[in-house]
Structure prediction request, 225 residues.
Amino acid sequence: MLVLVLGATGGTGRLLVDHLLADGHAVRALVRDPEKGAPLAEAGVEVVPGDLTDPDLTALTDATRGVDVVAFCAGSGSATGKDQTLVVDLHGAVRTIDAAVEAGVARYVMLSSMAADDPWSSSEAMAPYLAAKHAADRILRAAPISWSVVRPGRLTDEPGTGEIRIGQPRIPEADRGERTIPRADVAAVLAACLTEPAAVGATFEVLSGTDPLAVAVAALTPTAP
Ligand SMILES: NC(=O)c1ccc[n+]([C@@H]2O[C@H](COP(=O)([O-])OP(=O)(O)OC[C@H]3O[C@@H](n4cnc5c(N)ncnc54)[C@H](OP(=O)(O)O)[C@@H]3O)[C@@H](O)[C@H]2O)c1
Prediction:
């Protein structure tokens, strides 16, 4: 399969790229900084220049053409403001959904966030970000495309364990523990969602846990739209 990864130069995106290449998939990446794209190209990724906030949609449209799956791992990051949250996490994501539908892409896997179903359930500072994730998820779930929405807790750079806990629609408060998960495990979940039929139409929260990753993903069920 040819997979377009958005956010391939980021923490989780890069780990997903490595998974996909190891699994024998072809990977295309839309990258805004050529210097950051160079190591991806060396690894065998087709790197195309582009920015999700570019008023001109040509780069995104061209990057999406011929793709089997879109994986969204981009994000404005915690160091930017609400303006970037709006144009990257919300509008940027929506543009990639539109481009995927327009190009007839079969499948879209969204890296969202825990608590995106209720943006005010977290801190006031997090609400704009979670609201952006919430809206993008809803637009994806209503789109004419096969989708999965993956909602992890706080991401860490610890090594992956291959053991997770999934909650549909949410992980109960008492079972949330540290509310963290290594990016490596999230990347493995995203990679599993590409090919696991049970992940189609599923929205779910995911944290570190004790369930084998492949077993937990295979036990997913479709979410009511
Ligand atoms: N951090 C957390 O605790 C947490 C928790 C739950 C969910 N998430 C979500 O998980 C995803 C991955 O998070 P992460 O921390 O691993 O990512 P990250 O390291 O912050 O990387 C973000 C990626 O998005 C790209 N990007 C940002 N703005 C862009 C734009 N305008 N056009 C194109 N690409 C753009 C970045 O490109 P550059 O390399 O050029 O900057 C980078 O590749 C994000 O969607 C995030 O919202 C994060």
Remarks:
- Helices lie at 11-22, 34-42, 58-64, 82-102, 127-141, 183-195, 213-218.
- The mean pLDDT is 96.
- The CA atoms of residues 198 and 218 lie 5 Å apart.
- The first strand starts at residue 2 and ends at 6.
